[in-house]
């Protein structure tokens, strides 16, 4: 880990890039300090998690997703999963669904419930017990619960994804659970880095289309090349404002750059239209 990141207790110098993005675009600001739901794709070893945790309003929920196992900072949740799998998107949705329910129940008042034996007890409205009692009183309906999940629960989608090295050695040194050994910044092959980043950005864009709220924002890393103008056009169909931004913390000789996308146009956006027109 570079000296300056270690010095500030950050997990990697990637943190400085996100800090600069936030300084310029205020991506973690919300109206009246409302708590945010943030998903961080390609989160290991956790430096962007640290920035999100520090900059988001109190009570915000931050979820890191990575194909590699990693230890998130305290206060951040994590999920080891491949973002290219549709199931991962459903798991992210249901994570934030439960987080919303938790927030609601914290703000709920006490209610009186009459059990089927005729006793009256006081529980938190919508608490586990309340839910169990009303399930035994009424017919339980799983599909109802599923429908109550907010379809677009997220305020910010971050993506710093880059494919990890395939592990072919080092198993004896516990490299499987130490993301530093397998994390790559670039392969050094310009076309390969560019093509791979376009695919991973498209995966992040699908998460943004499916799960980001209207008005939400996204930051995604890419390596510049021939096809990024088409990605930019796709992003412009989903967000009102799309900027290319290269923080000074990113080495000037590197083709690494970021799309900062602000103000999602609507909760529902037709994916097919986005991907068939650009
Ligand atoms: C450059 S690192 C991210 C650094 C991180 N933002 C931080 O601040 O510590 C890129 C990460 O993307 C992850 N990644 C690549 N492809 C992925 C995929 N399909 N699904 C989930 N994570 C992926 C890699 O495992 C790697 O840990």
From TrEMBL:
Pfam family, one: FtsJ
Domain Ribosomal RNA methyltransferase FtsJ positions: 11-264
GO terms under cellular component: mitochondrion
Keyword rRNA processing: yes
GO molecular function: rRNA (uridine-2'-O-)-methyltransferase activity
Catalytic residues (UniProt): 221 (proton acceptor)
InterPro entries to which the protein is assigned, alphabetical: RNA_methyltr_RlmE, RNA_MeTrfase_FtsJ_dom, rRNA-MeTfrase_E, SAM-dependent_MTases_sf
SUPFAM superfamilies linked: S-adenosyl-L-methionine-dependent methyltransferases (SSF53335)
Key words, A-Z: Methyltransferase, rRNA processing, S-adenosyl-L-methionine, Transferase
TM ranges: none
Family named by the database record: Belongs to the class I-like SAM-binding methyltransferase superfamily. RNA methyltransferase RlmE family.
HAMAP family to which the protein is assigned, alphabetical: RNA_methyltr_E
The name this protein goes by in its record: rRNA methyltransferase 2, mitochondrial
């Amino acid at each position: 880990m570079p000296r300056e990141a270690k010095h500030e207790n950050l997990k990697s110098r990637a943190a400085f890039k996100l800090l600069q993005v936030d300084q310029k675009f205020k991506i973690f600001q919300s109206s009246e300090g409302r708590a945010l739901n943030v998903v961080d794709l390609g989160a290991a070893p956790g430096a962007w998690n640290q920035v999100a945790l520090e900059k988001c309003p109190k009570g915000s929920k931050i979820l890191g997703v990575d194909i590699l196992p990693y230890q998130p900072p305290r206060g951040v949740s994590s999920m080891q999963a491949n973002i290219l799998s549709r199931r991962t998107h459903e798991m992210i949705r249901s994570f934030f669904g439960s987080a919303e329910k938790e927030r609601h129940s914290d703000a709920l008042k006490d209610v009186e419930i009459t059990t089927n034996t005729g006793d009256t007890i006081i529980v938190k409205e919508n608490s586990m017990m309340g839910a169990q009692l009303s399930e035994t009183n009424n017919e339980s309906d799983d599909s109802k619960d599923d429908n109550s999940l907010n379809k677009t629960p997220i305020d910010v989608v971050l993506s710093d994804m880059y494919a990890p090295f395939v592990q072919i050695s080092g198993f004896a040194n516990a490299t499987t659970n130490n993301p530093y050994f397998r994390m790559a910044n670039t392969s050094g092959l310009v076309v390969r880095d560019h093509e791979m980043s376009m695919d991973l950005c498209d995966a992040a864009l699908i998460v943004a289309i499916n799960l980001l709220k209207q008005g939400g924002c996204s930051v995604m890393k890419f390596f510049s090349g021939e096809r990024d103008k088409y990605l930019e056009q796709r992003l412009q169909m989903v967000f009102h404002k799309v900027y290319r931004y290269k923080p000074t913390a990113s080495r000037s000789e590197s083709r690494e750059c970021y799309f900062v996308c602000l103000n999602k146009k609507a909760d529902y956006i037709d994916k097919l239209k986005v991907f068939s027109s650009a």
